[in-house]
């Protein structure tokens, strides 16, 4: 499709970036039903690695088949599919050109005793599979966080030289962070900011709670005069932390929940100026028709076509 | 846009190719106004290098500006823009995502005394600029032909590993070929076949004449029982030489000519099963409005929407 | 032999993979007495490295001689022989072309204090020895698991580029896993799934018990409505976790046992849709004639030619 | 299939060669209907590059499609298919494992003014496509012969390190050779010997005439006391020149001819101890049924099953 | 100094270029007395290599000392000093930061029998010496032109990756060009265009004559309706050939001449939209005070501060 004003505006924020990276950002921003609106709805399927196949796919066994998740992304008109190497490789040929791909290039599992990730994909893999971007998880706060930052930086430099966009999943955890701290407003905003400083083009965070984790940050938040009990205000704060909105920030839906709760979150993301959603378990764990109906509503909410009641 | 049946059929001919290459072929086949039809209309602007700027751009001085040719490709809804490094680099940032790009990676000039080309771009350049393909000229018959084949083979292997499609401009010349032999039916078909054997995904040739250059080929042609005085039959023969139509073959318009002659050629390409046109001087040497009107007719001819009278 | 429908169906699951990898998978699937049936019976002889020669070969001292195990694999009509570098190198010349080889490229020993493996073979070794595949062990759950994943990923990428198939021995152990957890259904299925995501073409796991190790997975299993006290249902679940059966999964026999127990396992593997067995100690620790008789029964069970009573 | 005595005997001639090379020679010698007999019948399809598509495929237009020649090789039960990169790549995926492949890695065309070849494939290509061997043409006697020897030697060393067999097409031509000299007995035997000295595992030559080209060789031939007017004696002489029969030598059928003439040649090759035939134009230029019937007779002649009357 | 509108406008033409390259272009454009005006006056001292020291420095023996030319460039307030490795290395320490440096990275001498250049400097040298740019000569039309293009392309890619600007001296000569053709308008414009296509950021050409060298270009020039007997029109044409003025084009003064002739050339360059002068022999071959006075006038002419009478 033609470059829209929304997309032109977003791309202009990345001035100085390699043209190939911008072209791949444009591919993501122009594809699917939200194409041209400046919003992204992405399907991530890395939960099999992260939580195991039974917890991920038993609720809707069709999801065991990699082709199913490609079909879901294509049929729903999503912006992109993000997954680890083996899953993408199982469908990249048959679905070549049908939906932009993001190679999730590091992975962890729930058998591990510490917060870290293994490098499970490379820039070469991403190019060979025709991906538009390569994605990495970082765990701000974890004992291994600096090694993770360094791995991401190195791979991101290689990716940019090849024109690939870089997506960073910024998931605070480990170290001295409390469980509540993992989604605390200050910590999520901090993590988004560090992802931007590490060179991420697209930043993926969880929706933040109103909790402030760091004692030394409390007065700063208290002095802002913003009502952070309102989710859209928290979204707006995280977006502001990502270079005043110059970087694309998408929010994850988290564990499966009922549709109305999900729609409320989408409304808040849109109201707060977030760039979209990354919806995994809430989509592929539902029966196909339910998932398509839910994603249709999410997309229409982003396009302002429905109240999603 | 969605993958159409036409595009699915073409991609299926490239079985065994890397998914990334297929994804980039899909990008070319899905973009622009012919997107989804299985036809390509490509704007090449390498004549500045090949013939010099005055001969190329003086007829329509707007063409001196690289941005003009990007705009022309975008506005006309073409499938791709093909050009040498410097020209693509001058617009790839501003027009990121607006039109698929093909880096013409070797170049010759009219000051040279022999038929050869210099390598003027690399796979790395193509990736950095966000190109979907990389293109090379070969001169079958020239004294330097085998060195050119080897250069193309080496760069093509690197391109495929990075998911880029490979376009070969097969232009017979030099050696023992007569001037008429450069567009002879047997020689053009032979050149298209060699390009396919060298691994080209898209083959670009000139429209062949009915002349048969090689004495030892005359009986083979005489025995086919095909009326080669008809241009569409010649087109069909060249397409057959490209692995029985398994490779995309596009035809060049050659020197600027009047519109009716060009439309007749397009009709013959379409009737003969050719995959499209690469229209350079006939488009950028005309005033913008004339060029857009002509390209509109060419596109509609390929889509079967007009008789182009 | 000719490609059978069973083999064609299996190869089609690997769409997008390099033709050379498919050709090597075809070699494994077409060789030996199960050739063409879609089933594999593989002889692994890495126990000398893993447990020491006396524990491995004293029960049948013929096994100390590498040539013996080649002869056993050839005479029994097995699909392949898998072993570390030195053992394969000791017979690959004399038995060239007689049986497909899998280079087991990392190895551990029982003298070690922690769960890890050394890289003891390379892709270059595998090519020089004429292997069809290269194999790696991973220990999901171990403290070193992520480093192992990264080693496997790097070598697997190199192997695929050279047309070699990649076999992953997925053996959960270490970290916070209990001893029962190493063969727990959830953990084995999880490990098979991760092997597929890491790009394995063939996955080797132990037959799972009905134990569920991870507390957070229990509800998922409880909700499936499947009787996991039945071994074939557990096999089917593991196969499903390997991309819904798109990846070849073979099961190990584990410690030596009586023949009937082994046959029961084979029946369950076949009933559950598993792709075959990897039978080490149960074959090479028996006297030659016993081993051949047992393997004959195993093969006939897979071919549906006997009840193996 | 099992290694036969014939095959074991041939492999034993290559003592000291890498096991992987022997395994690939075994693949060729065990495949197809001549499998195990020590004879090879190979389909080469490089004439499109060498002579152009019309001269090659117009007599039987089905041959324009690469899939047709794969099907022909599979259906006829041939030992291998040999072709340049693009043709193999067009079918290697769909026909993975169905027939051993030989990558013809250098190529010439009839537009050239001098006797040389371009490198058009690499060891990496051969591995990726799952080939068993890589083949090169040399032109003993040509001005470029030493460069060609060096190119072959370098690629052959790389191929052997990767376990690939090396096939050399030894075609004397150019320099001071007369036209008759290109198939002269002394020159063909000389060429086969040099191919063996360059490290070829399989040597492909044209059937020699009784002409002796080199004046200084005449007395040697006169003194042998062998009746070289008998074709089988000439075959035996060439085989002797290839390390006393320690290297596989196959003979080409040359231009299309009638079946009886071809069968007579096969009888002579067999009687002279040649290892088989490489039959290109005589097979793919006939209608499919004719070609299959002819190849069936050729195979039965090699197997001693028919008199081929 | 602050970025001026002139400089901002010029930098904007290089959209998509690496920020480091732009920063170095800005250094050149902001330094010296023309800083901020969008004009460059550069001192090149490569004549010692090209013509020998006596012909270069005997007229003003102070020039034998590299420090003298650094002092001249600094004292005259020039934009940059361009010279081969040894000369720059002899002053880069003492004059560090005093004037931007351009490493002339290939060099020829008048002892040579053919038109070519040796690589005499590298990107690493340029970085180590603190240069802002690296320069290369190409000889369009020479037998070696394509090899030179390839050398420049390779070094330019490395330079850009390190943030260095690339200057190309485009000097047509050799091959079928006549002596008059070396400065012919069509050939100079063609050469400037090719330099831009090769990725040059700054293009240096000789002032063109009104001669048209290429017969096939004559009609294009005749049809432009421009009076090319006027030097400023010829300058404007060359600038247009450099991507419609998107690339910086500077003109050389050529052999030493009287000041008025030089001032007339500067007036024409300025009137035609050229970006400045590169003044070698006319400056360093004069006594210091004369040179400084002449350069003062040149600078004031570019700044519009004098009529230079």
Characteristic key phrases:
homopentamer, 309 residues, alpha/beta, eight-stranded parallel β-barrel, two-stranded antiparallel sheet, 14 helices, 42% helix, globular
Short summary:
By secondary structure, chain A is α/β, with parallel strands linked by helices. The first copy, chain A, has helices at 5-12, 19-30, 47-51, 53-57, 66-75, 85-89, 123-128, 145-161, 185-197, 218-222, 231-241, 259-271, 281-284, 288-303, and strands spanning 40-44, 80-83, 101-104, 106-107, 118-119, 133-138, 165-170, 202-206, 248-252, 276-278. Chains in contact: A-B, A-C, A-E, B-C, B-D, B-E, C-D.
List the helices and strands and how they pair.
The structure is a homopentamer of 309-residue chains.
Chain A lengths: L4 H8 L6 H12 L9 E5 L2 H5 L1 H5 L8 H10 L4 E4 L1 H5 L11 E4 L1 E2 L10 E2 L3 H6 L4 E6 L6 H17 L3 E6 L14 H13 L4 E5 L11 H5 L8 H11 L6 E5 L6 H13 L4 E3 L2 H4 L3 H16 L6
Parallel strand pairs in A: 1-2, 1-10, 2-3, 3-6, 6-7, 7-8, 8-9, 9-10
Antiparallel strand pairs in A: 4-5
Helix pairs in contact in A: 9-11, 11-12, 12-14
Task: Tell me what you see in this structure.
With 309 residues, chain A is of the alpha/beta class. Chain A is built from 14 helices and ten strands. An eight-stranded parallel beta barrel of chain A has the order 1-2-3-6-7-8-9-10, surrounded by six helices. The longest helix of chain A has 17 residues, at 145-161. The radius of gyration of chain A is 18 Å and the shape is globular. Chains in contact: A-B, A-C, A-E, B-C, B-D, B-E, C-D. Chains A and B meet through α2 and α7 of A and α2 and α7 of B.
């Amino acid at each position: 499709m033609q470059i829209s004003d929304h997309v032109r505006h977003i791309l202009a924020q990345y001035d100085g970036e390699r043209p190939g990276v911008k072209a791949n950002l444009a591919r993501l921003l122009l594809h699917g039903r939200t194409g041209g609106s400046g919003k992204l709805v992405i399907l991530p399927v890395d939960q099999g690695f992260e939580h195991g196949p039974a917890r991920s796919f038993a609720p809707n066994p069709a999801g065991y088949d990699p082709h199913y998740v490609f079909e879901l992304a294509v049929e729903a008109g999503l912006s992109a599919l993000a997954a680890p190497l083996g899953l993408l490789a199982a469908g990249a040929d048959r679905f070549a050109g049908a939906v932009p791909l993001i190679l999730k290039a590091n992975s962890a599992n729930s058998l591990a005793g510490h917060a870290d990730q293994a490098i499970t994909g490379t820039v070469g893999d991403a190019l060979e599979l025709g991906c538009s971007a390569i994605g990495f998880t970082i765990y701000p706060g974890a004992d291994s966080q600096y090694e993770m930052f360094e791995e991401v930086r190195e791979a991101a430099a290689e990716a940019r030289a090849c024109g690939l966009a870089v997506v960073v999943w910024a998931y605070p955890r480990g170290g001295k962070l409390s469980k509540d701290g993992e989604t605390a407003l200050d910590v999520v905003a901090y993590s988004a900011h560090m992802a931007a400083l590490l060179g991420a083009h697209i930043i993926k965070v969880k929706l933040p709670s109103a909790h402030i984790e760091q004692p030394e940050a409390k007065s700063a938040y208290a002095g802002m005069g913003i009502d952070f009990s309102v989710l859209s205000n928290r979204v707006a704060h995280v977006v502001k932390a990502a270079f005043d909105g110059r970087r694309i920030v998408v929010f994850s839906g988290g564990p499966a929940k009922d549709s109305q709760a999900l729609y409320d979150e989408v409304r808040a993301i849109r109201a707060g100026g977030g760039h979209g959603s990354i919806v995994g378990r809430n989509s592929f764990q539902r029966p196909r028709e339910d998932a398509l109906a839910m994603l249709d509503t999410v997309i229409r909410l982003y396009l302002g076509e429905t109240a999603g009641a």
